[in-house]
Amino acid sequence: MSVLAELLAEGREQRVYSGAAWSVGDARGPRDRGWTGTRGWDGPPLDGDDLWDLASVTKPIAGLAVMALVERGTLGLDDTVGTHLPGYRGGDKEALTVRQLLTHTSGIPGQVPLYRDHPTRASLLEAVRLLPLTARPGTRVQYSSQGFIVLGLIAEAAAGAPLDALVERLVCGPLGMRDTVFRPDAGRRARAVATEDCPWRGRPVVGEVHDENAVVLGGVGGHAGLFSTLADMERLGAALAAGGRGLLRPGTYALMTAAHTDDLALRRALAWQGRDPVGSPAGEVFGPDSYGHTGFTGTSLWVDPATERYAVLLTNRVHPTRTGDGIVAVRRAFHDAAALLPPVASGRGHGVE
């Protein structure tokens, strides 16, 4: 059993999650991969083909679609919200830029449970439009799911296509990520890992997006909603480790993954989180220019350009409840162990009971 397998099996024993899957590799593919545990505490064992709710790992994948539109000239990083969304003209968000939305420096607050008072897509989007800014644009990194909801609307308006179609055409299709989808169908839902026993919905959530604002939006948002498998996330990790191969031109990839907020307290790239000097979910070993993203459900993807290494971690740490922060230590330990893994192929993937 590998170090990663032991570490993640211990996380299950500590009831941080019922199941976990992982892959660490480079541009050539995985070097250490596997899975441990069950799809739910009363569910079947993981088999490696399981479907995971990516939560906010949706953001950089949607961001890759946005950057592909930028590369094609369909959208500009300095385009304003008002340019593409007429309903925002005359309001406090009219002059916000695509770049500010991508770097979480727009001033739009995040983690706002709009779904509680706005049960329809139209009313929730109107609530996003009217949310007062809580920082002057460009002055503070303030993580904002609502900002990425707006970003998704801009991408749709600029390209004249729904966000799910754009993600499929510009990201998933080129990499062969056939199981990375919004709103999974019945066949995929049958392979889904359980998330929360949701108080709002009054039932356990399986194969339906965990994020409640995304539920009201119909399951598709720039901030959350994507589901994926270990194999698909490996494809994405390998492509990023290869400098965005199959997705973006080298210059666009470099622009997207470079730090854009080093004059502020937190390091952010375009739709990616940089490695903060203190408290990074990437632990202590991944390099200073590494980047990645985490998801509330217990997912993450991290890439180190210096070593051309990626690390994928998929868990259901919100099952059956979102309380508890055990994933923080597990995630950091996982990334440290992943970064220290010798760059030697370790053979095929394996399941761990």
Record the strand order, biggest sheet. 8-9-10-11-1-2-12
For this structure, the quaternary state is single chain
What are the segments in which pLDDT stays under 50 over at least 5 consecutive residues? Answer: 345-353
CATH topology of the largest domain: Beta-lactamase
Q: What is the string of helix and strand elements?
A: HEEEHHHHHHEHEEHEHHEEEEHE
Main sheet characteristics: 7 strands, mixed
Number of beta strands: 12
Overall CATH architecture of the largest domain: 3-Layer(aba) Sandwich
> In one word, what is the shape?
globular
For this structure, what is the CATH homologous superfamily of the largest domain? DD-peptidase/beta-lactamase superfamily
Radius of gyration: 19 Å
Count of discrete structural domains: 2
Distance between the termini: 11 Å
Strand coverage percent: 15-25%
**Can you give the mean pLDDT?**
96
In helices, the fraction of residues equals: 25-40%
Number of contiguous helices: 12
Structural class determined from secondary elements: alpha+beta
The CATH class of the largest domain, by name, is Alpha Beta
